[in-house]
Specification:
The structure holds 2 protein chains of 2 kinds. By secondary structure, chain A is mostly helical. Chain A contains 3 helices and 2 strands; from the N terminus they run αααββ. Chain A has a domain of 44 residues: Glu-tRNAGln amidotransferase C subunit, N-terminal domain (Histone, subunit A, Orthogonal Bundle), CATH 1.10.20. The radius of gyration of chain B is 30 Å and the shape is elongated.
């Protein structure tokens, strides 16, 4: 088992988390993240592991909500909590490379 | 260009027709002022918890059923993690591991041949907020955040743009009839992405995949696929390769353009959503949800044709759900369904389109429509009469009999009376009869003119024409 992650692996994780790392930090995380992964790897040693038990902490059915409208926020309140807005829209720096959702 | 075998899969997102959002009780609406249909859950504020909308489950069961899917009775939700402003809590709640429906199919017909499009799985998820890029800014509207979606994923089993188009049209028709979604591509309540790859032989492994995202119309899906097949074929012909990628269809260029080289699924770091426990579907819940499935378009079409409606009319009827629903209420009656369908799709549809009404917004009760059809069938009114009285029929409560009387419509439909008259006219116009027999079609028009003149336009033209032709033989 290798002792540390590669620099590329750390940078890849950093990119997914949208954070910048210094050279020192990269070196630190190469070891720290690998240690964490090694700990998690131990789960794989359990025999006849039924991974369904990890999905929820109890097996009761979830409570469903009736399809009835409730209280909503005023647009003014929504915009107050955003750093910037333009008209009724929340405004953020342009992001064109993505559009991951749905 | 050499021959390649295309492999096509389609993913469709449908917004569900619920009153409220999937995980919050704010209103699920379209076309309202930006950020006016939200609450703290849709905005992903810290400390908020999702509560699952019962109607989403009902609609998803209905959808899975009409897609001939198996239904998973114990399921959970997962978090799909990514950083992007369209989802401020940094994960989308979806069903990655336990989709509600799986192993289904939809039957399509292309070029007269029936084919099954297999459904890999169908899962429930939340929509993200709508973002619009304006220069250096991206503008966000959270009205769409948390709108319930189902995503329907086919197996890579289609071979042409034509098949993908037929599948989407069928899907749209079924989902619309079942009130699951309003399926408006232009409003984004139906969105289609497609995966395209090509290979030389069936025995070869699949080629590299390109995904084409958010295509604006069903016909463009067909075009985008054909263009993409062409593009990949050219690359392979030149011994070039390409990386898996995401492309979009450019309406102006009428071609696909590169968006990005694809991230892999692992980067989303899916894990079970701990805020929503298991969803367990009992047989009662499933049965109750299925009760609301109406008669589906294919079955309607079959019945209409059995009742004597032409294939074309049957097809046209199911394209207009309110007319088809109206027609269905008549199926137990003993009327001439061919005439009924012609009337509904002809003059009545013209009226409805002109005044932007639906059939239920007119005064045409089933009883009055039956009377109208019978009056035509029994030659009491002609198609010209129908045109003349239609507005009164559709806007008043008077019986058809009353309207006919008031409008002074009397048609001579008595065979004997007309036949006698025609015999006399033939006798008196021997020259025209000779012309007709010599092949001059105009002569018959002249003779018909004489009939109408003699009866002051009251002879039923259909009957008169039939008799005239038979007498001329």
């Amino acid at each position: 088992m290798k002792e540390k992650l590669t620099e590329e692996e750390v940078l890849h994780v950093a990119k997914l988390a949208r954070i910048k790392l210094s050279k020192e930090e990269i070196e630190k995380y190469q070891i720290e993240l690998k240690e964490l992964l090694n700990d998690v790897e131990k789960i794989n040693e359990v025999e006849n592991f039924d991974d369904d038990i990890l999905i929820a902490c109890w097996e009761e059915n979830t409570e469903l909500r009736k399809d009835k409208p409730g209280q909503m926020l005023e647009p003014k309140e929504v915009l107050e909590n955003a750093p910037r807005h333009s008209g009724n829209y929340i405004s953020v720096p342009v992001v064109i490379s993505g559009g991951e959702g749905a | 260009m050499s021959e390649y075998i295309p492999t096509i899969g389609v993913e469709v997102h449908l917004e569900l027709k619920t009153n409220t959002k999937i995980f919050s009780d704010s209103i699920n609406g379209y076309g309202e002022m930006a950020n006016s249909l939200t609450n703290v859950i849709d905005l992903g504020y810290p400390g908020t918890l999702p509560t699952l909308n019962e109607e989403v489950i009902n609609l998803a069961i209905r959808a899975a059923t009409v897609l001939n899917c198996k239904i998973r009775k114990t399921m959970h939700f997962d978090r799909k993690n990514y950083f992007y402003p369209d989802i401020p809590k940094n994960y989308q709640i979806t069903q990655a591991r336990t989709p509600i429906g799986y192993d289904g199919y939809v039957e399509i017909e292309v070029g007269g041949e029936k084919k099954k499009v297999f459904i890999e799985e169908m899962h429930i998820e939340e929509d993200t907020c709508k973002s619009a890029h304006r220069g250096t800014k991206t503008l966000l509207d959270f009205n769409r955040a948390g709108v319930p979606l189902i995503e329907i994923v086919t197996k890579p089993c289609m071979k042409s743009g034509e098949e993908a188009k037929a599948y989407l049209e069928k899907l749209k028709e079924i989902m619309y009839y079942c009130d699951i979604s309003d399926c408006k591509i232009e409003e984004g309540s139906m969105r289609a992405d497609t995966n395209v790859s090509i290979r030389k032989n069936e025995s070869d492994p699949f080629g590299t995949k390109a995904e084409i995202k958010n295509i604006g119309s069903i016909s463009n899906v067909g075009k985008a696929i054909e263009k993409e097949i062409e593009r990949q074929a050219k690359l392979y012909d030149n011994n070039e390769t390409f990386k898996p990628q995401t492309r979009r269809f450019d309406d102006k260029l009428q071609d696909t353009v590169l968006m990005r080289i694809k991230e892999t699924g692992n980067d989303y770091r899916y894990f079970p959503e701990p805020d929503i426990p298991y969803v367990i579907l009992t047989d009662e819940i499933i049965e109750e949800a299925r009760k609301k499935i109406p008669m589906l378009p294919d079955e309607r079409k079959k019945i209409y044709v059995e009742k004597g409606v032409s294939e074309l009319n049957a097809k046209k009827l199911i394209q207009n759900r309110s007319l088809s629903d109206y027609f269905n209420t008549l199926l137990e009656e003993s009327i001439n369904f061919k005439i009924a369908s012609n009337m509904l799709l002809g003059d009545i549809s013209a009226y409805l389109n002109k005044y932007e009404k639906t059939i239920s917004e007119t005064t045409l009760t089933q009883e009055r429509f039956i009377e109208l059809v019978k009056s035509y069938e029994d030659n009491i009114i002609t198609s010209k009469n129908l045109k003349d009285i239609l507005e009164i029929v559709l806007e008043s409560d008077k019986s058809i009999k009353e309207i006919i009387k008031e409008q002074g419509i009397e048609n001579i439909s008595d065979d004997k009376e007309i036949r006698q008259l025609i015999k006399r006219i033939i006798e008196e116009n021997k020259e025209s009869v000779e012309d007709y027999k010599a092949g001059h079609d105009r002569a018959i028009k002249y003779l018909m003119g004489q009939v109408m003149k003699e009866t002051k336009g009251k002879a039923n033209p259909r009957i008169a024409n039939e008799i005239l032709v038979s007498e001329l033989k």
